[in-house]
Write a structure and sequence with these properties.
The chain is α/β, with parallel strands linked by helices. The protein contains 13 helices and 17 strands. β1 and β2 form a beta hairpin.
Length: 411
């Protein structure tokens, strides 16, 4: 491991890592589901509720003004984090699922029509499949899928054949939530742009915590992610959208805080983007905590985190091979930086997860909200161990020791 990576200091900032589970030290390897939170995030939410709680964009009193200020400063901070051209391109949402549904129901319903087609891939999370399936059925739109190669990576040789001048949207994940494959986004987007004028949506739920994101360099139209995947609380997320697209889109969820005027006889008129997409009372404490989470990530450096996780992945693969475990590894040849997907060949993933939990080891089991990907590998479920900035070699050693114990039980 890199000697100057401050792993001990980082781990000391995450109080839950001191917890014991079933009399064993917690080995938390379910980070692709949700990350743990550092003290600075936990305390910022508690401080906000103890001292500053109020509704943003509503009143003129001091606390409300402070909440509004927090919201808009965070919007600018997130814009800088992903290199958006302006803060008005950042919309606060509940999470990735919320953002994709917003795009499908606002942009999709108004700008995709009969005869058009949408392109996604077979590796997507259900959140990036179901909104498009529903839209395609309702509007009689063709929905195409980029097929997968044997290892679960995208078969990009098929990409050009799936795009034509009626392709209106390509929605694809930055990083597989199951096997951790990082998709070559720039290559994909360049191919799409040479064949069509399709809008590009990137599901960044998994990628945001592991790779530097530059939405201008990518030249994507939307990039969406959840705060809880990047050390912030649940219930807050980001939808980036190019400003010219956001201006054309209508609000999907309507209510208080987004109108210029409402009458009982005329159509309502709405305020400008991004605020027209943020109806109802905003999750200000989550927004405050999101800014502190991203500040924390920036203090470590996302490229340093990626390098650390990549080294951990190499160590894990080396140790798994060295121990000669009877595993089926689903991503042993790809360039995943932060997760291992596997099965003990004849055993249900739920059983493996339950047994590992007895040793204090937390992993994810089941279909991972990616049943089409499970079908590709002809399994009903997988085990997944996923890393974060605070994962260390001791975690990996305990994980592998747990697998050895389980293998011995099966003999």
């Amino acid at each position: 491991m890199t000697v100057d990576y401050p792993i001990k200091k980082i781990r000391s900032n995450f109080p839950i890592l001191n917890k014991m589970i079933n009399k064993y030290p917690l080995t938390y390897l379910d980070n692709a589901a949700t990350t743990q939170k550092p003290d600075v995030v936990i305390e910022s939410q508690a401080y906000y509720y103890r001292n500053e709680c109020s509704s943003a964009h509503r009143s003129v009193h001091s606390l409300s003004t402070l909440s509004t200020d927090y919201m808009e400063k965070t919007r600018l901070y997130v814009a800088n984090f992903i290199n958006a051209s302006k803060s008005e391109e950042i919309v606060f949402v509940k999470g990735t699922t919320d953002a994709i549904n917003l795009i499908a129901n606002s942009w999709g319903r108004n700008f995709i029509n009969y005869g058009d087609n949408i392109l996604i891939s077979e590796m997507e999370h259900h959140s990036n499949i179901l909104p498009w399936q529903i839209l395609a059925k309702e509007k009689n739109i063709k929905l195409n899928y980029i097929p997968l190669l044997y290892d679960g990576s995208l078969n990009l040789t098929k990409l050009s054949t799936l795009i034509d001048h009626r392709t209106r949207l390509v929605s694809i994940t930055h990083m597989s939530n199951v096997v951790g494959i990082i998709n070559p986004l720039i290559e994909i987007i360049n191919i799409v742009h040479t064949k069509s004028n399709a809008i590009i949506l990137i599901d960044g739920a998994q990628g945001i915590a592991h790779q530097l994101v530059d939405v201008q360099k990518l030249n994507c139209d939307f990039y969406v992610f959840s705060g809880h995947k990047i050390y912030a609380p649940s219930g807050i997320g980001i939808m980036y959208g190019k400003s010219e697209l956001l201006k054309k889109m209508k609000p999907w969820i309507v209510g208080g805080g987004i109108v210029k005027d409402v009458s009982l006889t005329q159509n309502a008129t709405f305020i400008d983007s991004p605020w027209k997409f943020e109806s109802g009372s905003s999750n200000v404490s989550g927004i405050v905590a999101l800014r502190n989470a991203i500040k924390y990530v920036n203090s470590i450096g996302i490229e340093n985190i990626f390098r650390h996780e990549t080294q951990l992945m190499s160590y894990t693969r080396h140790m798994l091979l060295k121990k000669n475990l009877n595993l089926m590894l689903y991503n042993k040849n790809n360039k995943s930086s932060s997760m291992i997907a596997f099965n003990f060949k004849l055993h249900n993933s739920y059983d493996i997860g339950t047994l590992l939990n007895q040793y204090g080891i937390a992993i994810r089991t089941g279909h991972h909200c990616a049943i089409p990907l499970m079908n590709h590998f002809k399994v009903s479920g997988m085990c997944r161990a996923s890393f974060a900035m605070y994962t260390n070699t001791e975690d990996i050693d305990r994980f592998i020791d747990g697998l050895i114990r389980i293998q011995n039980l099966f003999i």
